[in-house]
Design a protein that fits this description.
The complex is a heterodimer. Chain A is α+β, with helices and mostly antiparallel strands. Chain A has 8 helices and 20 strands. Chain A has 2 domains: 225 residues, P-loop containing nucleotide triphosphate hydrolases (Rossmann fold, 3-Layer(aba) Sandwich); 112 residues, no CATH class. The radius of gyration of chain A is 25 Å and the shape is elongated. Chain B is an all-alpha fold. Classes of the chains: A alpha+beta, B mainly alpha. Chains A and B meet through strand 6 and helix 2 of A and helix 7 and helix 8 of B.
Chain lengths: 349, 568
């Protein structure tokens, strides 16, 4: 349905977006995940028609809409700080888009009520939006964006300003509303939890490019490079250089470790980052003697409810592991990372 | 130290703080005001048969209202596009043009009147040019002493208020709101009427009423550009009191003037309340961008050209005309001496006429500077004390603030009239009117001083003072180490403000300055009212000096003003 081709955009003379291309299918929720300043909001505003790209094009159902003004695109955008009209009531805010469609009054009223019903705020219809709490404003903004039945819904960090407990609750609510509406949606956030909770397809934006796109499971299992693994918080990264190819062996601060090539080409002497996932660590008895085994000192051990998280130190390298049993701080333990579980990745952090 | 003690001590402090401003306002404002009231009502009681008085009053009121409405509408026509220009577009010369556009607010009325005279008057550039071009013997354009001249000067004066207030609000309007409307399918026209217009309305209505207030109380401009045919209430008060010695009628007119301005000031306070809190404002000012489309470029060019023609041309004309001699002076040989000259400036400091009415201009300059310095000190001391009194009186301030802002509603001419009525009688009759001038000027400046200082004072978190006192500072030390450094910039702004206001004040000065001790504006008025090229040239030269001083003051205020602060 929506197709973005080769979007380039500069910000204050420096390249911000460098050739962004992707597509959004019917009913799909795409999450754009990136650090603040990565240009993800700008990309959203370019798709919305609020900003112009240096080059590239935007297509909808095979028709180019790059030069179409924002108010004719029929896209809904939910702003980061909601941008509710302060001079209008809750009801009037939600009705705004319906009025712009030129619908008869009765229909405007009926659909406004329906939209307020979806967010369960019928009782707030006559309130001033300035009296609402953050969570209530967020829901009104969602209802306002959904009410005119846009062909694409875009959400710019819609939960950014809310506290954690409310966010968890609203992620679930948003997911059910997005699925019920069956609309294609683009959701922009810097928060992994939100992205994992909502995305059908997850896209990582870094240094103006899409680093990786895929389902959450794909990204989790197979991060495209070291930055993606670090940004997604998959584990500790250990840098080293390749010393052997079959099997892949990497020289690191913890000695020479065997790792999975992750389907990439490697050369002896090439730089690599090893991803050590906390769940994959095995705590062994006795001295280290096999492949991928080394001894480490337990710095501290935290009780996390189901499991224990321990911070360890070996040869001045710090990493953390997750275990079912507690480890005694100050003690020395032998750690093993099974070779097939250690991902060898390219790129800087 | 217990809290109780602090509070009880606070009460005495508050009373003490209130004492000085209260005494000042009682003597210099409310006493003259009641004197005018008494005079106006005594006339009603005595003169039942003088029915032409109310007739004149009604006619004058009608004209005052009419020209004010017309001026305000014209000011909006010029000011609103300019406000849009400054709040949206970046273009070459923007900063300079903005400074020019904000300058008129602080310019003395006499300078404005003389500037327009130098451009459009019988000896002005336009007429002199046309006469030379077509060999005419009479000035062809007679724009002076007409309603258009008055309107033009009012637009010149007050577009700066629209630009400042509406432009400021426009640039702080959250752009996401208009973009949200766009995303909901609103076309540019709908975006404006549904979102921009309602959100700007408080600022626009407030600014319009303020412009209306200034147009309604206009004195110097109407007196000097309108000529004998046109009189606003202010001018009529002046004429009745100083030339016809009809104080009762002057009192009645003052009463009408005061009642109406209070009504407008009340309405202004009502409409300009910020209605939606911070919801409609963005944290930072909107990004300016260069005009892109052809339409935007034409708009930028036309608006900038109109502003230059309206705002810069009269001032340039004043400065250049004061440096050029264009005609034969009296007592010289018949041929015209045209060309660059500093003669008008040199003449300012030389006593040549020997007339007994003649006062060397240097005396006027000395007087004005002395008065301005005194007025500046009085207004700032008093303003500071008053601001503290208001700040510490909490909820009471809501009732007390209007009492202090009231002097703004009373016109300078009314003030002058009141002073004349009160201080010529016992026990004040020993007081020279000249000494009263700084007090009158301080009264005119006081509301602006309080309105600048009070927000700054409210902006100082009490926790800073508390932190200082827990670190061992006594109250005097707290004031010196915390309050004073934070108030320094606003205080500087106020000082420049009071000084320039006093330098250019004309209404009250025209009542209070004596024949041998004029202020600069009064001297300029005398020069321009007298025939002769030399008098004309001297008026231009003095106005130019005043213009330069005020422009420097305006620049200083712009530099020292905290960003984002508005004066109203």
């Amino acid at each position: 349905m929506l197709e973005i081709r080769e979007i380039y955009k500069n910000y204050e003379g420096r390249p911000l977006l460098q050739g962004i291309s992707f597509a959004v299918q019917a009913g799909e929720t795409v999450c754009l995940l990136g650090e603040s300043g990565s240009g993800k909001s700008t990309l959203l505003r370019i798709i919305a028609g609020l900003e112009a790209a240096e080059s590239g094009s935007i297509w909808w159902d095979g028709e180019e809409i790059s030069d179409m003004p924002a108010h004719k695109r029929g896209f809904g955008l939910m702003f980061q700080d909601y941008a509710l009209f302060p001079h209008r009531t809750v009801e009037q805010n939600v009705a705004f888009g319906l009025r712009m469609l030129g619908l008869p009054r009765a229909e405007v009223e009926a659909r406004t009520r329906a939209a307020l019903g979806i967010i369960r705020m019928e009782d707030f219809a006559k309130r001033a939006v300035t009296e609402l709490s953050g969570g209530e404003q967020q829901r009104v903004a969602l209802a306002r964006a959904l009410a005119p039945n846009p062909r694409l819904l875009m959400l710019d960090e819609p939960l950014g300003a809310l506290d954690h407990a409310l966010r968890v609750q609203l992620i679930a609510e948003l997911r059910s509303i997005l699925h019920a509406s069956a609309k294609p949606a683009i959701y922009v956030t810097h928060d992994r939890e939100e992205a994992f909770g909502l995305a059908d397809t997850l896209m990582l934006l870094h240094q103006g490019r899409i680093v990786q796109a895929g389902t959450t499971a794909q990204l989790f299992r197979q991060p495209a490079n070291a930055w993606a693994a670090g940004f997604l918080g998959l584990g500790t990264l250990l840098s080293g250089s390749v010393v052997g190819l079959e099997p892949l062996r990497v020289k690191t601060a913890l000695g020479v470790l065997q790792a999975s090539a992750c389907g990439q080409e490697w050369q002896v002497g090439g730089a690599a980052q090893l991803l050590l996932r906390p769940r994959d660590a095995l705590v062994l008895h006795g001295m280290p003697e096999g492949e991928n085994q080394f001894s480490a000192c337990v710095v501290d051990c935290l009780f996390m409810g189901e499991t224990y998280q321990s911070h360890l130190r070996a040869n001045d390298f710090s990493f953390s592991i997750q275990t079912d049993r507690a480890l005694a701080p100050g003690s020395d333990v032998t750690i093993a990372f099974p070779p097939e579980r250690v991902s060898c990745l390219k790129g800087e952090l | 130290m217990s809290n109780m003690n602090g509070k009880r001590g606070g009460l005495w402090w508050k009373l003490l703080l209130w004492l000085l401003p209260a005494a000042f306002l009682l003597i210099f404002f409310y006493q003259p005001l009641t004197a005018i009231l008494r005079l106006a009502f005594s006339m009603r009681a005595e003169g039942g048969g003088q029915s032409f008085f109310p007739g004149l009053a009604a006619k004058t009121f009608a004209f005052t209202l009419w020209q004010a409405v017309l001026s305000t509408l014209l000011t909006l026509v010029i000011g609103l596009p300019a406000a849009y220009l400054f709040s949206h577009y970046e273009f070459a010369g923007r900063k300079f043009l903005r400074l020019i556009a904000l300058l008129p607010f602080i310019l003395p009325t006499v300078v404005v009147a003389v500037s327009f005279n130098s451009l459009l008057g019988p000896r002005g550039w336009l007429n002199v040019g046309l006469m030379a071009l077509f060999g005419l013997s009479e000035p062809p354009v007679r724009l002076l002493n007409s309603l258009p001249a008055i309107l033009l000067a009012h637009v010149f004066y007050n577009s700066s208020i629209i630009i400042r207030i509406v432009g400021g609000a426009w640039s702080r309007l959250d752009q996401k709101l208009t973009q949200a409307a766009q995303m909901l399918g609103a076309n540019p026209w709908q975006v404006f009427w549904e979102v921009t217009f309602p959100l700007l309305l408080p600022a626009a209505a407030g600014a319009s009423l303020l412009v209306f207030l200034f147009d309604f109380t206009s004195f110097g401009v109407v007196l000097m550009l309108g000529g004998p045919a046109f009189a606003t209430l202010e001018v009529e008060i002046y004429t009745q009191a100083l030339y016809l010695f009809n104080l009762p009628l002057a009192g009645l007119l003052s009463l009408i003037q005061l009642a109406f301005t209070l009504l407008v000031a009340w309405a202004h306070n009502r409409v300009s309340l910020p209605r939606y809190g911070k919801a409609a404002l963005s944290a930072e000012k909107a990004n300016l961008r260069p005009p892109r489309t052809k339409k935007e470029k034409v708009f930028t060019f036309v608006t900038a050209a109109v502003l230059i023609a309206l705002l810069l041309l009269p001032l340039l004309s004043l400065v250049t005309r004061s440096l050029v001699s264009l005609e034969a002076e009296r007592g010289e040989r018949g041929e015209a001496q045209t060309g660059f000259t500093l003669r008008y400036y040199r003449e300012l400091f030389r006593d040549t006429t020997g007339s007994i009415f003649y006062v060397p201009p240097a005396v006027a300059v000395r007087n004005s500077v002395l008065y301005a310095a005194a007025a500046m000190l009085i207004a700032n001391m008093l303003g500071l004390i008053t601001s503290y009194a208001l700040h510490f009186s909490g909820r009471l301030a809501r009732w007390l603030e209007p009492v202090l802002i009231l002097p703004l509603g009373a016109s300078a001419v009314t003030l002058g009239l009141g002073f004349v009525i009160v201080f010529r009688r016992a026990p004040w009759d020993g007081v020279s009117f000249s000494i009263l001038i700084p007090f009158a000027h301080a009264l005119v400046a006081l509301p602006l001083v309080v309105r600048t200082l009070l927000p700054a004072l409210r902006g100082i978190p009490d926790s800073l003072r508390q932190a200082a006192s827990t670190l061992g500072a006594g109250w005097a030390r707290v004031f010196r180490e915390v309050d004073l450094p934070l108030l320094l910039r606003p205080l500087l702004v106020c000082m420049v403000f009071a000084f320039t206001i006093s330098l250019g004040e004309f209404g009250a000065s025209s009542f209070l300055s004596t024949g041998r001790n004029p202020t600069i504006p009064v001297a300029i008025y005398r020069y321009i009212s007298q025939p002769g090229a030399l008098n004309y040239g001297q008026a231009l030269a003095m106005s130019t000096i005043l213009l330069v001083v005020c422009a420097l003051g305006s620049l200083a205020i712009e530099k020292a003003r905290l960003p984002g602060e508005e004066l109203f």
